[in-house]
Design goal:
about 230 residues, seven-stranded mixed beta sheet, globular
């Protein structure tokens, strides 16, 4: 069994995602009751990629999130620091140009992309403020950032119920479907300890992003933050 610690050592996190790559998308479907697909469509709409756009999909995993951008005519760069995820992605979507990349040190030039998007990955970066500054560096003036991440339910009673699910039911369900269920204990802890919507928005603003706004999904279980370079 493999899991990372909340100090988020990059090598530990990468190995953990390597271990779950084969069944990662299936496990997410089961754990969210299929809602992850609806959330992915909402992110695609927020990104609003079109022909000629260059989209950096960081923490793209197996590339499932990248496919709609390519279908919209954009040039998409699916990037991840888990080699296991990249191998699985290349097997599933050989038409995509996967790139190995660290969110805090991207192999891209300044002002080289129109959109940076990241779903369910920012909380796994040890220094997410540094990653947000790096995203700003590679984004052209007027470009945009879309971050989809687990967040804090708005209603206190719902937050309490959700936290009980995270720390109890989620790991138990993962044991039935995941290729490495122990890693989902870390994932539950990382969701629980992640900043709420306003805290992430503040960090984005300090990293140089303008007009930060967010949209809550399912009462705040997930939030989509959007901002401009």
């Amino acid at each position: 069994m493999m899991r990372a610690g909340l100090d988020k050592q990059p090598s530990d996190v990468a190995r953990m995602f390597d271990a779950v790559a084969a069944r990662y998308d299936l496990t997410n479907d089961v754990l969210t009751g299929g809602l992850v697909r609806s959330w992915r469509r909402t992110v695609t709409e927020a990104v609003a990629a079109g022909p000629g756009d260059v989209v950096l999909d960081i923490a793209a995993g197996t590339g499932t999130s990248s496919v709609p951008f390519r279908e919209a005519g954009a040039h998409v760069i699916p990037a991840d620091f888990s080699l296991g995820m990249l191998r699985e992605g290349r097997r599933r979507y050989p038409e995509l140009d996967f790139v190995a990349a660290d969110a805090t040190s991207l192999p891209l030039a300044d002002d080289s992309v129109d959109v940076v998007t990241m779903s369910y990955g920012l909380r796994n970066v040890r220094d997410h403020a540094s990653a947000l500054r790096e995203f700003r560096r590679v984004t052209r003036p007027g470009g945009r950032l879309v971050v989809c991440e687990f967040s804090a339910p708005v209603q206190p009673w719902f937050r309490e119920v959700y936290t009980r699910y995270l720390m109890g039911s989620l790991p138990a369900i993962a044991r039935a479907v995941s290729s490495d269920p122990e890693s989902y204990v870390y994932l539950a802890e990382s969701i629980r300890d992640w900043p709420a919507q306003e805290g992430l928005a503040t960090t984005m603003g300090r990293a140089g992003w303008r007009g930060v706004e967010w949209r809550n999904l399912l009462g705040g279980i997930v939030a989509i933050h959007r901002a401009y370079a």
